């Protein structure tokens, strides 16, 4: 992997809400994010000299995480408490798209992508730990993450992949022949094939990432896949993951009960459809912490965070 370049901040936009975990950009360069109190917010005017405008679009009544804008202007929301939701951005109404799979309530849905044929794919990070205990799953290394599919017109999802290590961000390849799933707990991107003789099979696309991948985003088929790194590689954690399950469970109990504060490390990657790194940007002593999402909007790299109360606007990388 090439040596990283400096991630250069431009300015910070306060949102009046905690934890904009995922950020996505619409065609007009506006940025959408969901915060901890359930609100879906939209930030407009990123390039204007006055402060950007923040408006409330909807309230899910739960905890919104991953977002996906649809061609008709609607919004899909992975809600950690309520499942997969649909939001009408014209009136703010919210409906449940799917809230169970195989008789099990959907909890900790994480990220979602819709393909051109109308099918919807989304991830479940953990079946054992809720969002507020996410660190327990990372430490225990449960492998209970899932990839699910909702067929066009259907309201019952099917499980495509199980055994994922904290399944998180999700994006499609340029030709929609495969999906890329971020496995936070394994520091890898996994390719799940949708077409061809190997359809339904999964294999690593990029391994041994320099940090823990969280949400991933692609602005269009001509652009790279942007990968947020929520934290750096932690060698003792890699060692713990090779321990026996009882040891990992005991360590997870300690981690859940201990106060957590992220380090000053922030990082993002951009990769192509072969898993090759196009850009790698980091900052070691950042005041904006725990980057859980990244997108491009209005000439900025926009960072979201489960930890912060706003979003960070950064210098985009030089074209390669």
TrEMBL record:
Keywords: Glycoprotein, Phosphoprotein
A single cellular component GO annotation: endomembrane system
A Pfam family assignment: SSL_N
Signal sequence, start to end: none
GO MF: hydrolase activity
Annotated family: Belongs to the strictosidine synthase family.
Name recorded for this polypeptide: Strictosidine synthase
